[in-house]
Automatic annotation (TrEMBL):
SUPFAM superfamilies (alphabetical): C-terminal (heme d1) domain of cytochrome cd1-nitrite reductase
InterPro entries, per the entry: Haem_d1_sf (IPR011048), Host-pathogen_enzymatic-act (IPR051200), WD40/YVTN_repeat-like_dom_sf (IPR015943), YVTN_b-propeller_repeat (IPR011964)
Biological classification of the source: Bacteria, Bacillati, Bacillota, Bacilli, Bacillales
Protein name: YncE family protein
């Protein structure tokens, strides 16, 4: 069977069948990790830092994942790059309840909480477009939104002027901005560094800012979302930065970036937009990263792609705690509810 037929048959199968009960989790801080080569999602209880239940089967080559807190419950939305669908996981039962056909090559996903509802914005990297899903009905709304070449990362900015989606264009070295009220691109693309990848936003007392990984520049660019302009000079981090997230700690806001070729994590103090401390050693080829706000502190969970593990960083001491947590093969994305 050739790859195209395998993809078609797998997509049809997963659209026709719902996943069996995998094993419930209690309402704690739970991490969901996409395992690209296993076509599954692993579940980690961050209170014990152990994997719970069995891996959840999803589509082909799951990559990006995001959590939606809706009136009907909390759901994980998974972009399956090689089956052109988004799987929806009910996080109460850890079952797949919906599979939604989107654009070609969905790779990343973000959730926008707007006055009109809660929507999932899905990057289709091959078609250079964004598909919008209404999470109330789990249906695609409107037409795909064209952005720049090879969109890679996406993050939502909740500002005083509205809710906006910021999308990095990997092949264009730019960031596109979508107004979620009209689902149209606004303004001109924002020029950043070489090969922009993941992106995150920070709501601070000084405003809302987008932090952009520039993979080939080994830097992070900062965008002021009020003016949609880059501020300051690019911030040098490690070699081949990949994942990025923001931790709101008692000591302030900090950006954590994974440096995939250095096997470590850099920390940026948002107050000064400078790197602080020393890089934190983790596993091999760190990629995705997410923050868990636990009762006993704030922790960063780092995917080590080549080790098939997750490392845990205590953001108070900025040190790795415990042993790496084993997950599936070729883990890529992580989201925490």
């Amino acid at each position: 069977m050739d790859q195209q037929n395998e993809k078609k048959n797998y997509t049809q199968k997963i659209l026709e069948n719902k996943t069996e009960l995998i094993g419930p989790t209690e309402p704690k801080r739970i991490a969901y990790v996409t395992n690209r080569d296993d076509n599954t999602v692993s579940v980690i209880d961050t209170t014990t830092n152990t994997v719970v239940g069995f891996p959840i089967p999803v589509g082909l080559s799951p990559s990006g994942i995001a959590i939606a807190h809706t009136l009907n419950g909390t759901f994980a939305y998974v972009a399956n790059s090689n089956s052109d669908i988004v799987s929806v996981i009910n996080t109460t039962t850890n079952t797949v309840t919906s599979n939604i056909i989107v654009g070609v090559g969905p790779s990343a996903i973000a959730i926008a909480n707007t006055k009109n509802g809660i929507f999932a914005y899905v990057i289709s990297s091959i078609s250079s477009s964004i598909t919008v899903i209404n999470t109330a009905t789990n249906t695609v709304i409107g037409s795909p939104i064209s952005v720049g070449l090879s969109p890679s990362g996406i993050a939502i900015a909740n500002t005083s002027n509205g809710v906006f989606a910021y999308i990095t264009n990997f092949s264009g070295n730019t960031v596109s901005v979508i107004d979620t009220t009209t689902n149209t691109v606004i303004g001109s693309p924002i020029l950043v560094g070489n090969r922009p990848g993941e992106i995150t936003t920070a709501n601070t007392s000084n405003g809302v800012f987008a932090y952009v990984i520039n993979r080939d520049s080994n830097t992070v660019s900062v965008i002021d979302t009020t003016t949609n302009t880059v501020i300051g000079s690019p911030i040098p981090v490690g070699n081949r930065p990949d994942g990025i997230t923001v931790a709101n700690t008692l000591n302030g806001f900090f950006v954590y970036t994974t440096n995939s070729n250095d096997n470590n994590v850099s920390i940026i103090d948002i107050a000064t937009n400078t790197v602080v401390g020393f890089p934190i050693p983790v596993g091999k080829r760190p990629v995705g990263i997410a923050i868990a706000n636990r009762a006993n502190g704030i922790f960063a969970y780092v995917i080590n792609q080549d080790d098939n593990t997750v490392s845990v960083i205590d953001t108070t001491a900025n040190t790795v705690i415990g042993s790496p947590i084993s997950v599936g093969n070729n883990p890529v994305g992580i989201a925490i509810k």
